[in-house]
Design brief:
Layout lengths: L2 E3 L8 E3 L2 H7 L6 H19 L3 E4 L8 E7 L5 E7 L7 H9 L7 E5 L4 E5 L2 E5 L5 H15 L12 H7 L1 H8 L8 H15 L6 E3 L8 E3 L5 E3 L5 E3 L1 H10 L2 H6 L3 H15 L4 H21 L3 H13 L1
Antiparallel strand pairs: 1-2, 3-4, 4-5, 5-7, 6-7, 8-10, 9-12, 10-11
Helix pairs in contact: 5-7, 7-11, 8-10, 8-11, 10-11, 11-12
């Protein structure tokens, strides 16, 4: 058990880090994330004291790349204390949330650059758009994501879509070279050609969520629905919307005529947000192939094959 005392002395109940987080980040003993995990209990205790927060609980199973702690502020207001894992984009969530300033996204109350801690308004973590029927969920998702698409701040730290997607091209080629991926190679080739074409003629320069899907939109008090957990970058809306097209793809696969249903979803979302259909189809195919190969490479062949099948429908 990895734990830290609550403010109040060594007799206080410990904080236990969720097993999902430990499993996700503990594989490489030399990883900066492994070192961070060892220091995390102390960081949590320090932040609770420094910001005069009262611990409520650590939600479980929690996330794979950050620790979430439910707390109350000195005035009794509920809040969420978040510690994102270290990495090349560790400070980007803070920068994006500060720029949105609560418009369409969870409100950043305060942050600590030294520890990376973020104090966020408390949302209803158990109620996401995935709790709604699909048609209603897509409508609410579209209304939420359009608020996030604003010009980035001057001197922002975010990658462009071209840069972010370009960094993974060689890795995708290596994964696709595996014997098991032989049937997927024509799709991989098409996906990489589309990425090259779409990246070379970006029509927009907007701040994007980066990982926008129904599970990343939670119910709130200040607004009905607010986005959380961005991996922000800058580029065109079609790239951001592609992840939403892929949402609940297992539901489409279980229904009749999944290929036609997938193409209808592309058309409906593109038209509702005034996004070019062909560009949305292209980025959706690329993101489906990219995610499918990565899932399959880490052993989740079922999810990987479903995403590759979805790409084939397009």
């Amino acid at each position: 058990m990895v734990s830290a005392p609550q403010p109040g002395g060594p007799e206080a109940a410990p904080i236990t880090l969720p097993q999902r987080l430990l499993d996700s980040l503990s594989n490489d003993p030399q990883s900066p994330a492994r070192v961070w995990l060892a220091k995390l209990p102390e960081l949590v205790a320090h932040q609770l004291r420094g910001w005069e927060l009262t611990l409520e609980r650590v939600p479980s199973p929690g996330g794979r790349s950050s620790l979430i702690v439910l707390v109350r502020q000195a005035d009794g207001t509920p809040a969420t204390l978040k510690f994102p894992a270290p990495g090349p984009y560790a400070g980007h969530e803070r920068a994006a949330l500060a720029h949105w300033n609560g418009w369409g996204a969870v409100h950043l109350l305060r942050d600590d650059p030294e520890s990376g801690a973020l104090l966020l308004e408390r949302l209803h973590s158990a109620v996401s758009l995935r709790s709604l029927p699909e048609a209603k969920a897509l409508l609410e998702a579209a209304g939420t994501v359009r608020r996030l698409w604003v010009p980035p701040a001057e001197g922002h730290p975010f990658d462009s879509v071209a840069t972010r997607t370009g960094k993974g091209v060689e890795t995708l080629r290596l994964i696709a070279a595996g014997t098991w991926a032989a049937d997927a190679r024509p799709l991989v080739d098409e996906a990489l050609e589309l990425r090259e074409e779409l990246s070379g003629q970006t029509p927009e320069h907007l701040l994007l969520h980066g990982d926008f899907r129904q599970g990343k939109v939670l119910a709130g008090e200040r607004a009905p629905w607010l986005a959380v957990g961005p991996t922000p970058l800058v580029g065109e809306r079609a790239y951001d919307l592609a992840q939403l097209v892929l949402d609940r793809c297992e539901d489409l696969a279980a229904g009749s005529g999944p290929a036609a249903a997938a193409r209808r979803r592309v058309a409906k979302l593109a038209d509702s947000l005034d996004v070019d259909r062909d560009r949305l189809r292209g980025w959706t195919l690329f993101r489906a192939v990219e995610a499918g190969l990565r899932h399959a490479a880490v052993g989740d062949r079922r999810r990987g094959e479903l995403l590759l099948e979805f790409a084939g429908w397009l």
